Amino acid sequence: MKIGEASAITGLSCKAIRLYEQQGLIKPARKGKYRSFNSKDIDLLLLIGEARRLEIPLLRLRSAIKDADRPDWPAVRILLTELQQETEREIAAQQQRLHSIGLCLAELHQCPLQGINSAPDLDSAP
């Protein structure tokens, strides 16, 4: 199939598909000056599209895929596991931040100085 069909199936733009080819992430066959995509190319494009939606940088993805003709699937699995762990750490950090904000709000609510809106006017002091 041609690039337009590959684009329609994967939801990726033709421009993005050309970029992924330039980056070495895919290697569609050539028939004259046209690219010809097979089912393996489509599967790889679907994976790349999902990786981009997950905000995986192309550099990290390229290091995992290495050879578009024979992607290193164990490396892709490792990459996804690493990203899952990074995301879990980020979530834990945000949960801790949320907890700390809640504590600050609780302390602020009990603060005896809460009713004071401004510092005393030093110019009017005796």
Detailed description of the structure:
By secondary structure, the protein is mainly alpha-helical. The protein has one domain (3-110): Multidrug-efflux Transporter Regulator, Chain: A, Domain 2, CATH 1.10.1660.10. The chain is 62% helix and 5% strand. It has five helices and two strands; from the N terminus they run ααββααα. Strands 1-2 form a two-stranded antiparallel sheet. A hairpin with a 2-residue loop joins β1 and β2. α4 (58-65) packs antiparallel against α5 (73-110). The chain starts with a helix and ends in a 16-residue tail after the last helix. The mean pLDDT is 87.
What's the quick description here?
The protein is mainly alpha-helical. It has helices at 3-10, 14-22, 39-53, 58-65, 73-110, and strands at residues 29-31, 34-36. The chain has a two-stranded antiparallel ribbon.
Query: Regions with pLDDT < 50 over 5+ consecutive residues?
Result: none
Q: What profile does the largest beta sheet have? A: 2 strands, antiparallel
Q: Would you list the SSEs in sequence order as H and E?
A: HHEEHHH
Overall geometry comes to elongated
The number of distinct β-strands equals 2
Number of domains: 1
The DSSP helix count reads 5
How large is the share of residues in beta strands?
under 5%
The level of helicity is 55-70%
From the N-terminal CA to the C-terminal CA, the straight-line distance is 89 Å
- Gyration radius, rounded: 27 Å
CATH architecture: Orthogonal Bundle
